[in-house]
Amino acid sequence: MSTERIYEAVIRASAGRLVRGGQGLRHLDIGAGQGELIERLRSRYACDSHACDFHVERFPLSDVPIASVDLNTEPLPYAEGAFDLVTCSEVLEHLENFRGVLREAYRVLKPGGLLVVTTPNVVNAYSRARYLVSGFATLFGPLPTKHDERHTTGAHITPIAYFYLAHALTDAGFADIRLGIDKIQRTSVLLLALFFPIVLLGWLRFLQVERRKYRTITPDNEAFVKQHFSREGLLGRTIVVSACKPAG
Protein backbone atom coordinates (compact mmCIF):
# COMPACT_ATOMS: atom_id res chain seq x y z
CA MET A 1 0.00 0.00 0.00
CA SER A 2 1.27 3.45 -0.92
CA THR A 3 1.66 5.57 2.20
CA GLU A 4 2.25 8.85 0.34
CA ARG A 5 -1.48 9.54 -0.05
CA ILE A 6 -2.12 8.49 3.53
CA TYR A 7 0.40 10.96 4.93
CA GLU A 8 -1.04 13.73 2.76
CA ALA A 9 -4.51 12.84 4.01
CA VAL A 10 -3.30 13.12 7.61
CA ILE A 11 -2.00 16.60 6.88
CA ARG A 12 -5.28 17.56 5.21
CA ALA A 13 -7.22 16.29 8.21
CA SER A 14 -5.00 18.39 10.49
CA ALA A 15 -5.24 21.57 8.43
CA GLY A 16 -7.77 24.01 9.81
CA ARG A 17 -8.15 22.06 13.05
CA LEU A 18 -4.76 22.88 14.50
CA VAL A 19 -4.53 25.69 17.03
CA ARG A 20 -2.33 28.65 16.11
CA GLY A 21 -2.45 27.58 12.47
CA GLY A 22 -0.09 24.70 13.17
CA GLN A 23 2.81 26.90 14.22
CA GLY A 24 4.81 26.27 17.39
CA LEU A 25 3.02 23.01 18.16
CA ARG A 26 4.27 20.04 20.13
CA HIS A 27 3.60 16.97 18.04
CA LEU A 28 3.81 13.26 18.81
CA ASP A 29 3.82 10.57 16.13
CA ILE A 30 2.87 7.18 17.59
CA GLY A 31 4.42 4.34 15.63
CA ALA A 32 6.60 6.72 13.68
CA GLY A 33 8.31 4.10 11.52
CA GLN A 34 10.98 5.82 9.44
CA GLY A 35 9.71 9.32 10.17
CA GLU A 36 8.14 10.12 6.79
CA LEU A 37 5.01 11.68 8.30
CA ILE A 38 7.09 13.79 10.68
CA GLU A 39 9.18 15.08 7.77
CA ARG A 40 6.08 16.06 5.83
CA LEU A 41 4.47 17.80 8.78
CA ARG A 42 7.63 19.75 9.59
CA SER A 43 7.82 20.92 5.97
CA ARG A 44 4.38 22.54 6.41
CA TYR A 45 4.31 23.60 10.06
CA ALA A 46 6.78 24.74 12.71
CA CYS A 47 6.30 21.62 14.83
CA ASP A 48 8.37 20.39 17.75
CA SER A 49 7.98 16.73 16.85
CA HIS A 50 8.56 13.68 19.03
CA ALA A 51 8.27 10.02 18.07
CA CYS A 52 7.75 6.63 19.62
CA ASP A 53 7.94 3.17 18.07
CA PHE A 54 8.69 -0.47 18.83
CA HIS A 55 11.33 -0.68 16.09
CA VAL A 56 13.37 2.41 17.01
CA GLU A 57 16.35 1.08 15.04
CA ARG A 58 14.49 1.95 11.83
CA PHE A 59 14.12 5.65 12.71
CA PRO A 60 16.63 7.86 10.85
CA LEU A 61 15.82 11.41 12.06
CA SER A 62 18.61 12.33 14.45
CA ASP A 63 17.05 15.66 15.44
CA VAL A 64 13.74 14.13 16.56
CA PRO A 65 13.59 12.50 20.03
CA ILE A 66 12.26 8.94 19.81
CA ALA A 67 11.21 6.65 22.65
CA SER A 68 11.06 2.88 22.52
CA VAL A 69 7.63 1.61 23.57
CA ASP A 70 5.65 -1.60 23.24
CA LEU A 71 2.17 -0.25 22.64
CA ASN A 72 0.63 -3.61 23.49
CA THR A 73 1.95 -3.61 27.05
CA GLU A 74 3.28 -0.15 27.97
CA PRO A 75 1.79 3.33 28.36
CA LEU A 76 3.12 6.22 26.33
CA PRO A 77 6.24 7.56 28.09
CA TYR A 78 5.02 11.16 28.18
CA ALA A 79 3.37 13.45 30.70
CA GLU A 80 -0.31 14.23 30.70
CA GLY A 81 -1.21 17.14 28.42
CA ALA A 82 2.20 17.24 26.73
CA PHE A 83 1.16 17.62 23.06
CA ASP A 84 -1.03 19.77 20.83
CA LEU A 85 -1.18 17.18 18.03
CA VAL A 86 -0.92 13.39 18.11
CA THR A 87 -0.80 11.32 14.92
CA CYS A 88 -1.03 7.56 14.63
CA SER A 89 -0.91 6.40 11.02
CA GLU A 90 -1.28 2.74 10.00
CA VAL A 91 -0.54 1.54 13.53
CA LEU A 92 -3.77 0.54 15.26
CA GLU A 93 -4.29 -2.51 13.04
CA HIS A 94 -0.97 -3.90 14.35
CA LEU A 95 -2.04 -3.77 18.01
CA GLU A 96 -3.71 -6.15 20.42
CA ASN A 97 -5.51 -3.35 22.26
CA PHE A 98 -6.06 -0.28 20.11
CA ARG A 99 -8.52 1.18 22.62
CA GLY A 100 -5.80 1.43 25.24
CA VAL A 101 -3.60 3.40 22.84
CA LEU A 102 -6.45 5.81 22.11
CA ARG A 103 -6.91 6.41 25.83
CA GLU A 104 -3.19 7.08 26.13
CA ALA A 105 -3.35 9.51 23.19
CA TYR A 106 -6.15 11.34 24.99
CA ARG A 107 -4.08 11.52 28.16
CA VAL A 108 -1.00 13.04 26.53
CA LEU A 109 -2.98 15.59 24.51
CA LYS A 110 -3.52 19.09 25.83
CA PRO A 111 -7.15 20.22 26.22
CA GLY A 112 -8.23 21.35 22.76
CA GLY A 113 -5.59 19.12 21.17
CA LEU A 114 -6.11 17.07 18.02
CA LEU A 115 -5.67 13.36 17.30
CA VAL A 116 -5.48 12.01 13.73
CA VAL A 117 -5.43 8.25 13.14
CA THR A 118 -5.56 6.12 10.00
CA THR A 119 -6.29 2.44 9.40
CA PRO A 120 -7.31 0.29 6.41
CA ASN A 121 -10.98 0.63 5.52
CA VAL A 122 -12.49 -2.81 6.08
CA VAL A 123 -16.05 -1.81 5.15
CA ASN A 124 -15.51 -0.53 1.60
CA ALA A 125 -17.20 -2.42 -1.23
CA TYR A 126 -14.08 -4.37 -2.18
CA SER A 127 -13.41 -5.47 1.40
CA ARG A 128 -17.04 -6.52 1.84
CA ALA A 129 -16.88 -8.62 -1.33
CA ARG A 130 -13.56 -10.17 -0.31
CA TYR A 131 -14.92 -11.04 3.11
CA LEU A 132 -18.02 -12.59 1.55
CA VAL A 133 -16.02 -15.04 -0.54
CA SER A 134 -13.01 -15.65 1.73
CA GLY A 135 -13.85 -14.63 5.29
CA PHE A 136 -10.88 -12.21 5.27
CA ALA A 137 -11.13 -8.42 4.98
CA THR A 138 -8.84 -6.45 2.67
CA LEU A 139 -5.25 -6.32 4.00
CA PHE A 140 -6.15 -8.81 6.71
CA GLY A 141 -5.25 -12.18 5.25
CA PRO A 142 -3.87 -15.31 6.91
CA LEU A 143 -0.98 -14.40 9.21
CA PRO A 144 2.44 -15.97 9.70
CA THR A 145 2.98 -17.38 13.17
CA LYS A 146 5.75 -16.27 15.56
CA HIS A 147 6.17 -13.06 13.59
CA ASP A 148 7.97 -10.17 15.30
CA GLU A 149 8.24 -7.64 12.45
CA ARG A 150 5.34 -5.58 13.69
CA HIS A 151 5.66 -2.89 11.03
CA THR A 152 4.73 -5.15 8.10
CA THR A 153 1.35 -5.97 6.54
CA GLY A 154 1.91 -9.50 7.81
CA ALA A 155 1.38 -8.10 11.31
CA HIS A 156 -2.13 -6.73 10.67
CA ILE A 157 -3.94 -8.44 13.53
CA THR A 158 -6.85 -6.09 14.29
CA PRO A 159 -9.31 -5.05 11.57
CA ILE A 160 -11.18 -1.97 12.81
CA ALA A 161 -14.41 -0.87 11.15
CA TYR A 162 -15.11 2.86 11.36
CA PHE A 163 -17.97 2.43 13.83
CA TYR A 164 -15.74 0.71 16.39
CA LEU A 165 -13.00 3.29 15.98
CA ALA A 166 -15.46 6.13 16.52
CA HIS A 167 -16.96 4.25 19.47
CA ALA A 168 -13.52 3.81 21.04
CA LEU A 169 -12.69 7.49 20.54
CA THR A 170 -15.94 8.50 22.21
CA ASP A 171 -15.28 6.15 25.12
CA ALA A 172 -11.81 7.65 25.53
CA GLY A 173 -13.33 11.12 25.86
CA PHE A 174 -12.81 12.57 22.38
CA ALA A 175 -15.35 14.81 20.66
CA ASP A 176 -16.01 16.26 17.21
CA ILE A 177 -15.05 13.03 15.45
CA ARG A 178 -14.68 13.41 11.67
CA LEU A 179 -14.26 10.76 8.99
CA GLY A 180 -12.05 11.26 5.93
CA ILE A 181 -10.23 9.01 3.47
CA ASP A 182 -6.95 8.99 1.61
CA LYS A 183 -8.44 8.18 -1.82
CA ILE A 184 -11.38 6.64 -3.64
CA GLN A 185 -10.67 2.98 -4.40
CA ARG A 186 -11.56 2.22 -8.02
CA THR A 187 -12.23 -1.46 -7.36
CA SER A 188 -14.81 -0.48 -4.76
CA VAL A 189 -16.46 1.91 -7.23
CA LEU A 190 -16.79 -0.87 -9.80
CA LEU A 191 -18.15 -3.41 -7.34
CA LEU A 192 -20.61 -0.95 -5.83
CA ALA A 193 -21.89 -0.01 -9.28
CA LEU A 194 -22.44 -3.70 -10.12
CA PHE A 195 -24.14 -4.65 -6.87
CA PHE A 196 -25.66 -1.39 -5.62
CA PRO A 197 -29.31 -2.60 -5.57
CA ILE A 198 -28.34 -5.60 -3.42
CA VAL A 199 -26.19 -3.50 -1.12
CA LEU A 200 -28.91 -0.86 -0.73
CA LEU A 201 -31.66 -3.38 0.04
CA GLY A 202 -29.40 -5.17 2.50
CA TRP A 203 -28.52 -1.90 4.21
CA LEU A 204 -32.17 -0.86 4.56
CA ARG A 205 -33.05 -4.27 5.95
CA PHE A 206 -30.16 -4.04 8.40
CA LEU A 207 -31.35 -0.65 9.68
CA GLN A 208 -34.90 -1.94 10.07
CA VAL A 209 -33.89 -5.01 12.05
CA GLU A 210 -31.40 -3.19 14.27
CA ARG A 211 -33.88 -0.42 15.09
CA ARG A 212 -37.04 -2.44 15.61
CA LYS A 213 -35.87 -5.84 16.83
CA TYR A 214 -32.51 -5.40 18.51
CA ARG A 215 -32.76 -1.65 19.29
CA THR A 216 -28.99 -1.21 18.89
CA ILE A 217 -29.18 2.03 16.91
CA THR A 218 -29.63 5.02 19.21
CA PRO A 219 -29.41 8.80 18.84
CA ASP A 220 -25.90 8.59 20.32
CA ASN A 221 -24.48 6.14 17.78
CA GLU A 222 -26.66 6.58 14.69
CA ALA A 223 -24.28 8.99 12.96
CA PHE A 224 -21.41 6.50 13.34
CA VAL A 225 -23.56 3.65 12.03
CA LYS A 226 -24.60 5.61 8.94
CA GLN A 227 -21.00 6.29 7.97
CA HIS A 228 -20.78 2.63 6.92
CA PHE A 229 -23.08 3.50 4.01
CA SER A 230 -21.47 6.85 3.22
CA ARG A 231 -19.25 7.64 0.24
CA GLU A 232 -16.21 7.45 2.51
CA GLY A 233 -17.26 4.16 4.05
CA LEU A 234 -18.20 2.41 0.81
CA LEU A 235 -15.44 3.74 -1.46
CA GLY A 236 -12.50 4.93 0.64
CA ARG A 237 -9.28 2.92 0.65
CA THR A 238 -7.96 4.09 4.05
CA ILE A 239 -10.01 5.87 6.69
CA VAL A 240 -8.50 9.02 8.20
CA VAL A 241 -10.24 9.94 11.44
CA SER A 242 -9.65 13.10 13.45
CA ALA A 243 -10.97 13.95 16.91
CA CYS A 244 -10.46 16.66 19.51
CA LYS A 245 -9.84 16.50 23.22
CA PRO A 246 -12.44 18.90 24.64
CA ALA A 247 -10.98 22.23 25.69
CA GLY A 248 -12.91 22.16 28.94
CATH top level class name: Alpha Beta
**Tally of individual helices:** 8
Q: Total domains, how many?
A: 1
The radius of gyration over CA amounts to: 18 Å
Question: How are helices and strands ordered from N to C?
Answer: HEHEEEHEHHEHHHE
State the end-to-end CA separation.
39 Å
What would you call the shape? globular
Secondary structure: helix percent: 25-40%
Question: Beta-sheet strand percentage?
Answer: 15-25%
CATH architecture: 3-Layer(aba) Sandwich
Strand order of the largest sheet: 3-2-1-4-5-7-6
What would you note in describing this structure?
The chain is α/β, with parallel strands linked by helices. It has a single domain, classed as Rossmann fold. Helix content is 37%, strand content 20%. Strands 3-2-1-4-5-7-6 form a seven-stranded mixed β-sheet, with helices on both faces. It is globular. The protein starts with a helix and ends with a strand.
What key attributes describe this structure?
248 residues; alpha/beta; Rossmann fold; seven-stranded mixed β-sheet; 37% helix
In short:
The chain has about 250 residues and is an alpha/beta fold.
Write the layout of secondary structure elements.
Layout: H1 4-14, E1 25-30, H2 36-44, E2 47-53, E3 66-68, E4 83-89, H3 98-108, E5 109-120, H4 125-134, H5 162-172, E6 175-181, H6 186-214, H7 222-226, H8 231-235, E7 238-244
Parallel strand pairs: 1-2, 1-4, 2-3, 4-5
Antiparallel strand pairs: 5-7, 6-7
